[in-house]
Amino acid sequence: MKSANAIPFRLRIGVTGHRELADPEAIARKVKEFVEKELPELFDNPAAVRAHLENPDRRTEIVYTVITPLAEGADRLVAHSILNIAPASRLRAVLPFPREEYLKDFGSEASRREFESLYQLDADPLPPRNSLSLDNMDEKKRAQERSKAYLAAGVLVVEQCDLLIAVWDGEKARGKGGTAEIIAYAEERGRPLVKIFTSGRGNEINRGAGLKWQSLNRIEEFNAHPITAEEISLYTENVYNQLFANSPGAMLDPAMLGEVRSRLLPGYARASIIAKQNRKLYHRAGQIVYLLSPVAVLAVAIGVLFRRLAPYALALEALILILILLLIFSANRMKVLKKWIENRALAEHIRAGIFTTACGFMPRSLANQAAQATILQSDDWIMRLLNEMMSGFRPPSRCSDETCSAAISFVRTMWIDEQIAFHANTFTRSDRISRFLERAGMIIFLAAIAAAIIHLLTLPSPDEIGVHLTEKLIIILAIVLPAAGASIGGFRTHGEYSRLAKRSQSMKTVLTELRSRFVYFAAPETLAEYLREIESVMLEENKDWIVLMRHIELSPV
């Protein structure tokens, strides 16, 4: 079941193939057969993907972007086929030459018109692989440059795509940049590949490194998380008003604020709500586990020292231990820690995008493939969501004189200063809690030592029969207090209060230094550079936090 705000899982399908096709209709049928029936085979878990596609209640649709040089023959045929099969599909043009030069490759006016009609579907074509003019070259040099440009375009298609469709006759390459050479490069890179043969042979599927089922599944979990439209709307309005209702945010370009509101804020609201819910579950589960552990020890001590109460005390201990295991099992099964940190990471990336987009610039993490490759490498689904949110956004990449001063003030007060205040508060709160728990643990530890010494000094003589009530109480304290101290230590570690305090203190210092440079040197011509630097600092801090939190596990004490 589709949802109005659901973000689709977009597959980027690269295309390579021959220009001359004996039976285009047969090739189109094979493309249709692959997309509608065989696509799941390219995932690392085909059965799960098929189950997802057969589920009428799914929230996440699989949609496509065709990445193609738009040459005659296979390039255009596959593009037409996929656009017809899935109307929500998009097209990404990778031209070997500038458009005017490339048009000379097409032998008829009808072919040029077809190229233009497809080319217009890409709102932002990639730069041509070869920007040289071939007019002043001799025939040999021109041929060499053309081959190099076609090879470069084919290589870029492979690098940009999630999977490659190759319409191939099965023969070796007949020239540089030919279909066989691009297929070999795709196989070398481990790219999932489907070979659609121009002969009567059926499609050949090569999974390669495989598409990630977990990426599709995590986007489905994100879309399907039970949050009402009213919650999203309220959260969105609150964030928008906080940032843009007053000066300097209100002075920014209204068109850019509209982009923020429609593209980014609903996803930010959803990611933030999911992160907060799972953070609460994770912390509450851990707190209950650490609180119950010394109670279980107390039950054992009572059961041993008070025989009449033994059945009840030991039953209580068993119940507590079962409850602890159930809490841990449920939290781990629900993946509350993983969902918390991943959605927090997504929210922080979107938040950075909110500020850069409001100022009229493309977020750094989405500006180029190299930046994406270094950010959250294992969280492919996060980058897919970010790309989908910003798909088709074409910022002016330079603010006007009227809005630049407002953008500079907005970034300084609402981003840098707000984060400085946030980390100052986080340091104060985390350091206070850490010190309190540390002192409480030390007091309990000293009390345990005192109980042990008192027990030692009040030991009855060997001839005395039985254990007095006072001695039993001392024994209970000697047993339970170390367990309580250990639980407090575990509680302190579970919350990572000490590390959070140190990280926030360090981040406050970095941001304060960044702000001082921003105040004195920020100008319209350098705003983009400063936005990239600020975004890099914010996302790197978030990445460090993810690395820290991923090594924490909820486990029995």
Question: Briefly, what is this?
Answer:
By secondary structure, the protein is an alpha/beta fold.
Coarse structural class: alpha/beta
The succession of helices and strands, N to C, reads EHHEHEHHHEHEEHHHHHHHHHHHH
Q: How many DSSP H or I helices?
A: 19
In spatial order, strands of the major sheet run 3-2-1-4-5-6
User: How far is it from the N-terminal to the C-terminal residue, by CA?
Assistant: 43 Å
Over the alpha carbons, how many angstroms does the gyration radius reach? 31 Å
Largest sheet: 6 strands, mixed
Q: Averaging pLDDT over every residue, what do you get?
A: 84
Please report which band the strand proportion falls in: under 5%, 5-15%, 15-25%, 25-35%, 35-45% or over 45%.
Answer: 5-15%
Uncertain stretches of 5 or more adjacent residues: 368-377
Q: Tally the structural domains.
A: 2
What spatial form do the alpha-carbon principal axes imply? elongated
Q: Roughly what percent helix?
A: 55-70%
Query: What is the number of E strands?
Result: 6
Structure description:
With 557 residues, the protein is of the alpha/beta class. The chain folds into 2 domains: 9-218, 3-Layer(aba) Sandwich (Rossmann fold); 225-550, no CATH class. Helix content is 66%, strand content 6%. It is built from 19 helices and 6 strands. A 6-stranded mixed β-sheet has the order 3-2-1-4-5-6, sandwiched between helices. Strand 4, helix 7 (179-188) and strand 5 form a beta-alpha-beta unit. Helix 9 crosses helix 10, helix 10 (254-305) packs antiparallel against helix 17 (469-495) and helix 12 packs antiparallel against helix 19 (527-550). The longest helix is centred in the C-terminal third of the chain and has 57 residues, at 401-457.
